[in-house]
Design brief:
- The chain is about 30% helix and about 20% strand.
- The protein is globular.
- It has helices spanning about 20-40, 55-60, 70-85, 90-105, 125-130, 155-165, 180-185, 205-210, 220-230, 245-260, 265-270, 290, 335-340, 365-375, 390-395, 400-405, 415-420, 425; strands at about 110-115, 120, 170-175, 215, 275-285, 305-315, 320, 330-335, 380-385, 410-415, 455-465, 480-490, 505-515, 515, 530-535, 545-550, 560-565.
- Among the domains are: about 130-135 and about 150-185 and about 200-425, no CATH class; about 455-565.
- The protein is an alpha/beta fold.
Length: about 575
């Protein structure tokens, strides 16, 4: 291709002498060889051999042991990408620079926008309000990859999901959780004339299209705006340093949903629930996920912890936080807006106090728990951080057909941001896949009770692996991914009754923790591995963790959570 600029300006050439060229070449080689060499030498004693990863990967690429082994270029490119994302020297430099930008110039980054008076905003939430949205497609441009996959907007996926539910006699109730810039735009702009929530220009047409398909929409944005305007002295409805609403805003949304459900005819016909609820009030403190997204140095004092008063919902007889009930006729699908005061990984729901004086448990204060108390019955919950658009629908659709058809209503709580994000900012954050419902019925349980809760170890071949994103670009610091393990052979223990010899196993493993790749993230398709497995149901603390799953597999047996065997 001809360069038109050469017709305007003559090309420039820079020449250096041979000695200077040798000196620069030697310095360059030292710069690229010395850091990995020192890293490998310093970690050579590690048992898992992680200190010699480049050497091992190079050897595998030069002398492949299986037809599916990747070539040297692909393997080294993958390792280079992981090194760029997780190298400590790069992370320290990045954090130090961000500390200066934030502390001196009040500048955020590609995820966090800094407003007035310590208010922080999630950048994709702003992009969702100002972008092309869910109805008008983005125009193509020369900057876009012509081979890119087609973008699936929200409208089609939601209406098809509603039709699938209606075929099964289930109502869909969509609850778009407002995002902070909708309710608190004054900390981002000098426009003082705003008298209502900031909405995307297509929001009215979008919601009208959904209502025309029989989908109930509970839009609480106006209510939260009025609460902010009229009851400002009682506290804000959003956290200043976090993406999510405060308990006050969340409880207002719970009240609106409960009022709608109580008006439904089927609700009056349900038997009285046996559980009796009680509550307790606790205080939680956290710096907020938007501060975490700034990735400041450890110990940074630029932002102080924010405080929230939570109300835990407890089973009065057991004295413990209520849990999800899969037999309930009502299921809540959602993301971190449902989990924020119930999931310890999100900061405001802390774990049990330990010997070191750590904070007490405050789980049980989330959206689903309060909705259960308002309805007077336990409810079913599938809430996965960052997965409200497709992930939670996929998990629900994978259930056995008789379990799904027993539901009366699906309450789908999703950040309004996800509904309106357009193609460019939405990719990597939101996907709108169509889901296929499982048509099989739950098999009869084996005699003698459930034996699927025992650990066992298997050896097999990785038949399929879901993609793992860059942890530095993820909205959440922790994530799981899935593999399909083919032809598993028992090593220790005993196969559960629901697993037959030769069955493939659908296994969830850590992709990354605290934005650092885990050891289990390096598995490759075609690789033989030995895994120690336990029932997914025995890991309830992980059920809200984001799951990177693009396999779209149906699993006929219970799902398992795996760790690499020693």
């Amino acid at each position: 291709m001809h360069n038109p600029y050469e017709d305007i300006l003559p090309p420039e050439r820079v020449k250096i002498g041979r000695p200077a060229a040798w000196i620069l070449s030697v310095l360059f080689l030292v710069a690229i060889v010395l850091p990995p060499l020192l890293r490998n030498v310093s970690t050579a004693s590690e048992k898992d051999g992680s200190g010699w990863v480049p050497v091992v990967e190079f050897a595998k690429a030069v002398r492949p042991t299986a037809p599916t082994d990747k070539g040297i270029a692909e393997r080294l490119r993958e390792f280079e990408t992981k090194l760029e994302q997780n190298a400590e020297f790069a992370r320290a430099l990045r954090r130090g620079t961000q500390s200066q930008l934030t502390g001196i110039f009040h500048e955020g980054n590609n995820r966090t926008v800094i407003g007035r008076d310590g208010w922080l905003y999630f950048r994709p939430a702003l992009q969702a309000l100002t972008g092309y949205g869910p109805i008008t497609a983005e125009p193509s441009s020369v900057a876009k990859d012509p081979s890119r996959s087609s973008w699936k907007p929200a409208l089609g996926a939601i209406t098809r999901f509603a039709e699938q539910l209606h075929e099964r006699g289930i109502e869909l109730v969509l609850v778009p959780a407002p995002v902070k810039p909708m309710i608190y735009p004054e900390n981002l702009t000098d426009n003082a004339a705003q008298t209502s929530p900031v909405r995307h220009r297509d929001s009215d047409a979008f919601f009208a299209a959904l209502r025309s398909k029989g989908i109930a929409i509970i839009d609480v944005a106006d209510m939260l705006w009025q609460m902010k305007e009229t009851d400002a002295a009682d506290g804000a409805v959003f956290l200043k340093q976090d993406t999510h609403w405060r308990p006050r805003g969340m409880l207002a949304a719970v009240e609106a949903v409960a009022e709608h459900l109580k008006s439904r005819p089927w609700e009056q016909e349900l038997p009285t629930a046996a559980v009796e609820f009680t509550t307790e009030t606790v205080t939680a403190r956290h710096i907020g996920d938007l501060v975490e997204k700034l990735d400041l140095p450890d110990g940074s004092r630029i932002f102080e912890e924010e405080e929230a008063t939570l109300t835990r919902v407890l089973d009065k007889a057991a004295g413990e936080a209520i849990t999800s009930d899969a037999a309930s006729p009502v299921v809540v699908l959602g993301d971190s807006f449902v989990n924020v005061f119930n999931d310890p990984s999100l900061g405001f729901a802390l774990e049990n106090a330990g010997d070191d004086g750590s904070a007490p448990m405050v789980t049980g204060a989330g959206f689903a728990q309060h909705l259960a108390m308002k309805l007077g019955r336990q409810i079913d919950v599938i809430a996965i951080n960052g997965e409200a658009s497709s992930g939670v629908r996929e998990q629900f659709a994978r259930r056995y057909d008789d379990e799904v058809r027993a539901k009366k209503a699906v309450i789908w709580v999703i950040a309004a941001r996800d509904l309106f994000l357009s193609e460019t900012p939405g990719k990597g954050l939101v996907r709108w896949d169509d889901v296929t419902f499982n048509t099989s019925l739950r098999p009869e349980q084996p005699a003698g009770g459930n034996v699927d809760d025992r650990e066992f170890t298997v050896r097999g071949t990785v038949a399929l692996k879901s993609a793992i994103p860059n942890p530095q670009d993820s909205s959440y610091k922790d994530a799981l991914y899935v593999i399909e393990l083919g032809t598993p052979e028992i090593v220790t223990g005993k196969l559960p009754a629901s697993v037959q010899p030769g069955d493939t196993l659908y296994i969830r493993l850590w992709a990354f923790k605290n934005r650092s790749y885990s050891k289990t993230s390096n598995l490759q398709e075609g690789e033989q591995v030995t895994l120690r497995l336990s029932s997914w149901d025995s890991k309830p603390e992980l059920h809200t963790t984001r799951i990177e799953d693009d396999t779209l597999l149906f699993d006929p047996v219970p799902w398992w959570f795996g760790e690499l065997a020693e």
